[in-house]
Every structure is written in structure tokens, then in C-alpha cells.
Design goal:
Length: 289
């Protein structure tokens, strides 16, 4: 199955559903950041969530999710700068914790107590930001709370990343289900019943269920697909981006870089390296008034 985001309605247009399959995307993130399994699962879940959220806002020019916690992961960020793409970074890629009773990756324990912050900029440049306190650190529950508190939309979220013994990504995907204003009590009860039957997104993917199969499980086969979109991990950085970043520094700070023959900047999202020579730094200094 190719990486994709499926958008649909269910129960005769009474609920809105986003489904995501992102195995290649999360594996690329793992390779870039060289993450251990729990770090992979945490960053992967955040990327999966954002991969669906970016199709919720038609006017969004930029969208980001950030989690900060007091656990060993410290912080993780997912961003979308271009529709159909996401990128991310993580403070500590070396976390490998499991829950002894279930042997599952302990994402909540690795994140700890903290906050989830969502930030969005529309095409006119207006910025929107909202934060919620983490309820579990497992990311899905925290995102559901965000939608309920910040956007007043009753929402169910399922996110999952499963790793192989060699630490590569075996399966990755998720869903976001939202009630529409006219959702009947009967539909709410049916949806709640169906959600209790889905204990793990990756367990369904392991059984080779497609996104449409999962959609059918959620809606009792009562759904309409509105769109299917490609999704991928893409940074989009270039040297000009970091040159502009350097120009935001004052002359005194830029002058400190002249003590080295070259200044190296490493992109935190894709790990690509950009080198600036002494002459290039001097040119930047001279360009400032």
C-alpha cells in the first residue's frame, strides 16, 4: 500500500474521517534522525497526525504540532510547509522504553508531562496557536483533547507505529474521526461501539487491511470517500533559506563566524549540511546597514 491520506464521510454524512498510511514516510524520518524504537514511534505518531490535519484547513499556508514534556524525549515537532508533505525533528532520538506489562513502546512515559501546541498560518499571514496540557503523552489522546478544547469538535484519534526487530518501521498509520454538528445519538453510539473494537491501528495493518477496510469497520460499511491524497516526508530547505536566517543575526554575532574558514549549518529536519565560507559571511555582514 502506498503512503496516502484518505478523506471520507460516514453514516450518511454525519461524521468526517481522515485515514493515513505512512510506512515509508515514518521510515524515512527514522533513517534521517537515526531514532531508537520509542523515539521512532513518538515522532512517527506526530507526523501521522499532521499528515491528516493538513487536509483539514483549506487556507493553511503552514501547520505545525509541537510536544514538549519532562520525559527523556524532551520535545518533538512536526511541520507541513507544502500540502501533501510533512517533516519533523526530535530532541532525543535515542529513547527505547517499553511498558513491562504489555511490551509496547512506552511513548507516554518517554514524553512525560507537558503540552501539545498546534500552530497554523493562513495564506494571508494570520497566525493561530493553541496549547493543551497532555493527558497521556501517547499523542492520540492528547490530540483528541486539543480538538475538543481548542476547536470544539468531538474527535477520536488512533495513531500507530510498529517497528521490526532491526528497528525499521513495519507499519505506520492512523485515523481521525470527527462528529459533525448534526450527528445523531444513534450514530454516536454506533461509532463508539466500533471504536472499542479497534484496539490498535497497526494490528489491523499487520493483517493487511487497507484504509478502506478500516473505514468500513468504523462506519459499518456506510461511507463515502471524498478524496485520496499522496503524502510524503519532504523538508524543502535550501542554502538560501539559511542565508536569510543568518541575515537576521546582528553584525556582532555574524562577525564571530569569521574566526573559522567555513561555517556549517545542519538542517534539523533533514540533516543536510550547508557550508558558508568566510567570504560569504563577510558579504552578509557588509549587506547589513
Amino acid at each position: 500500500m502506498k503512503d496516502q491520506v484518505l478523506i471520507a464521510t460516514g453514516f450518511n454524512n454525519q461524521i468526517r474521517i481522515y485515514l493515513s498510511y505512512t510506512k515509508k514516510l515514518v521510515e524515512k524520518a527514522r533513517l534521517i534522525h537515526n531514532t531508537e524504537p520509542t523515539s521512532t514511534a513518538a515522532l512517527g505518531r506526530l507526523l501521522i497526525a499532521l499528515s491528516m490535519m493538513e487536509f483539514m484547513y483549506k487556507d493553511a499556508h503552514f501547520l505545525a504540532l509541537k510536544i514538549t514534556g519532562d520525559g527523556p524525549l524532551e520535545y518533538l515537532i512536526a511541520e507541513s510547509l507544502k500540502k501533501g508533505t510533512v517533516r519533523g525533528t526530535i530532541s532525543n532520538p535515542n529513547v527505547y522504553l517499553i511498558y513491562p506489562d504489555s511490551n509496547k513502546l512506552a511513548v507516554g512515559k518517554a514524553i512525560g508531562k507537558g503540552f501539545l501546541t498546534a500552530r497554523r498560518q493562513d495564506k494571508k499571514g494570520a497566525n493561530y496557536q493553541s496549547s493543551v496540557e497532555l493527558v497521556s503523552g501517547e499523542i492520540g489522546d492528547d490530540l483528541a483533547l486539543y480538538f475538543h478544547q481548542s476547536e470544539q469538535i468531538p474527535t477520536a484519534v488512533g495513531l500507530g507505529v510498529l517497528t521490526n526487530l532491526d528497528k525499521s518501521v513495519k507499519e505506520a498509520g492512523g485515523f481521525i474521526v470527527q462528529l459533525l454538528p448534526h450527528t445523531s445519538e444513534e450514530v454516536i453510539q454506533a461509532l463508539e461501539t466500533n471504536l472499542t473494537k479497534i484496539t490498535s491501528v497497526t494490528a489491523l495493518l499487520e493483517k493487511n487491511l487497507t484504509l478502506e477496510d478500516i473505514l468500513s469497520l468504523l462506519t459499518n460499511n456506510n461511507y463515502q470517500i471524498l478524496a485520496t491524497n499522496k503524502i510524503s516526508y519532504y523538508c524543502g530547505c535550501d542554502k538560501n533559506y539559511y542565508q536569510n536566517a543568518l541575515l537576521k543575526l546582528n553584525k556582532e554575532t555574524l562577525s564571530e563566524f569569521l574566526s573559522d574558514d567555513t561555517t556549517e549549518i545542519v538542517c534539523e529536519y533533514c540533516k543536510k549540511k550547508y557550508l558558508f565560507t568566510k567570504d560569504e559571511i563577510a558579504t552578509l555582514i557588509n549587506s547589513k546597514k
